[in-house]
Amino acid sequence: MQKKDEFKEILVNHFNKQGNKAFQGYGSLSFLKSWQEPYIYMEKYLNSKNLKDTNFLDYCCGTGIHSIYPAKLGAQVTGIDFSSSSIESAKERSKFFNVEDKCQFLVQDADESISFQQKFDYIICVQSLLYLDINETFSKLSKLLKDQGELIIIESVSGNYFFDLNRVKNTKNISHKFSSSLNKLHSKEIIKNTKKYFKILDEDYFGFTTTISYLVESKFKVSFLNKFFFGLDYLLKKIPFLRRYFFTMLIILKKA
Hints:
By secondary structure, the chain is α/β, with parallel strands linked by helices. Helix content is 40%, strand content 22%.
């Protein structure tokens, strides 16, 4: 228990520092164009739904980057995160984008017992499974959803040697001692755990050759290569065994 508490303190301190950074935009527009694809995909899906007056949970919301979009579509959004600094930034973001009345942000540790008076029509969990026990998390999310409620997961996954190597380097910057606890999950492991509680409505993969255009855009501020690599990735992910080499997976789930 002491080791777990020490690890959690390191993570909280890390994300408190992240939360202190000034925000720019929300949703997919918060990222370089070469890295927007999975978030645009999620936003198009949400836009196809009638979110007016639905209850929406952003699980591990961070600074509220992805909370604003559903609020703009009329959803009542609750965001939870264990970083108090991130939650303060999320509140400021909602004020800046004029959806303060549609959002509430709460300091809440996802590892602890979570209870709300209402259940949710939609839940999103973006780039956060890495820090959680996935079986326990999917059990919690299932209980938080209404019958026929939907869950959207976007997560960086393991499978590509070079991406995994870069991840190890990044996690050591967070905590050298606990870097092994921050290794990415494999997509098969995530899917296996979802099937206990959900049925899969959609599954997609992003970020294989587009990592080249990301490197070019981030270093040289050039984005003209994006369309070519987007198209190349679109073709490559049609070959099932190549999906393991993509950096990010997106799955849309319905409560079973």
